[in-house]
Design brief:
Distance between the termini: 69 Å
Order of helices and strands: HHEHEHEHHHHHHHEHEHEEHH
Strand order of the largest sheet: 2-1-3-4-5
Number of strands: 7
Largest sheet: 5 strands, parallel
Structural class: alpha/beta
Number of helices: 15
Number of domains: 1
Radius of gyration: 24 Å
Length: about 350
């Protein structure tokens, strides 16, 4: 074949190949950097899952479980959306018997579908499902399709997806213009600036043993006092004088998912408590949906704290409109289990903020 090409043509072809190689070098450098740094901590196992990069909570919770299950006999699991950060494991354990060992396995904007997938994965792993606490809102129940994107994708062990597909999601996120420039700047300077997207400026944000959230805003409140809320009025939008009731969200597909969750937990004789969160917007969870959940899970399992009430009225219970504080969850658990936090005034809800 070479005999059919002139020296000039061969030279031109070599130039094209050299140019293609030169143009592709930055691409391969980025790929090598991704695998070397493992910025999202999803390629290799780690002892601690804190990072200057914002990590995927789904993967973090699962990996902490795999890391610690042989040394810590986890048998109690806090599942649900990001409001689970208000429920320190030690606080919940104080309402359970002495053999209960809890860990938190949340997801951002968690849906009941992904909770079901996690419970199936725990069942496959032979986990003891002695107690389960689910922290939900209407969105957790209404939306069934699992979230996509690197911040929400489930580990392959849970979702059943091919591990390569999950890894490609993180690699694509690393290469995106919304992330890579910030990461490269951080890589060069070692500093996280407020302008850097998808980065964590707070340092440690979780307990490496049970995935408790170490919320930096709790420290801010301790330092600033009342000024914390005075200086952040934009994070607490005005509420309607007459908060409405959310329309019913439980249809047949939602009912089937909830029934499968309930059936799995019944197989394990699990003690279950479900909390409908006291959201800042004070919109009431639909009473028909509450009745449907009572029918599925049984009376005395589902506790609805939504709407206008003593919990949602006090802005001191909130970090911002989307998340409430352990001081509120302490009261909620006291109602659910019929007793106040037994370690008052030094309740684990407060002590856990400095737990290793």
């Amino acid at each position: 074949m070479d005999e059919n090409h002139t020296p000039k043509q061969k030279h031109a072809a070599r130039k094209v190949i050299c140019k293609l190689l030169c143009f592709s070098l930055p691409f391969w450098a980025v790929i090598l950097l991704y695998f070397h740094d493992d910025p999202f901590k999803v390629i290799r196992p780690y002892k601690n899952y804190d990072s200057d990069v914002t990590l995927n909570e789904e993967c973090v919770g699962w990996n902490i479980y795999l890391n610690r299950r042989d040394s810590l006999p986890f048998n109690s699991f806090i599942l649900g959306n990001s409001c689970t950060m208000a429920f320190p494991c030690a606080l919940w354990e104080s309402h359970l018997d002495s053999t209960s060992r809890a860990m938190r396995m949340p997801g951002n904007g968690e849906r009941c579908t992904t909770i079901l997938l996690k419970l199936r994965a725990l069942e496959r792993e032979g986990a003891d499902l002695k107690n389960v606490l689910m922290v939900l809102d209407y969105y957790s129940i209404a939306t069934l399709k699992p979230s996509t994107g690197y911040a929400n994708i489930l580990p392959a062990d849970i979702s059943g997806e091919h591990p390569l597909k999950v890894q490609l999601e993180f690699l694509q996120a690393f290469c995106m213009p919304s992330f890579l420039p910030s990461y490269l700047r951080y890589r060069l300077t070692g500093k996280v600036l407020p302008s850097m997207k998808h980065m964590n400026p707070h340092g440690r944000v979780r307990n490496s043993m049970n995935n408790d959230a170490l919320n930096p805003r709790e420290r801010m409140i301790s330092q600033e006092g009342e000024n914390y809320w005075n200086n952040r009025r934009h994070e607490f939008p005005p509420r309607n004088e007459k908060a409405d009731t959310i329309g019913s969200v439980i249809r047949q597909p939602q009912k089937e998912v909830l029934e499968e969750i309930a059936g799995l937990l019944r197989r394990h004789h699990t003690s279950v408590r479900i909390i409908i969160s006291p959201d800042w917007d004070q919109r009431r969870f639909n009473p028909a949906d509450k009745a449907e959940m009572d029918s599925i899970f049984g009376k005395g399992v589902v506790y609805d704290f939504s709407g206008v009430n003593e919990f949602t009225e006090d802005y001191h219970n909130y970090y911002e409109r989307a998340h409430y504080r352990p001081q509120l969850s302490e009261r909620l658990l006291g109602i659910i289990y019929g007793k106040p936090c037994p370690s008052r005034p030094h309740c684990p809800a407060r002590d856990s903020q400095t737990h290793p």
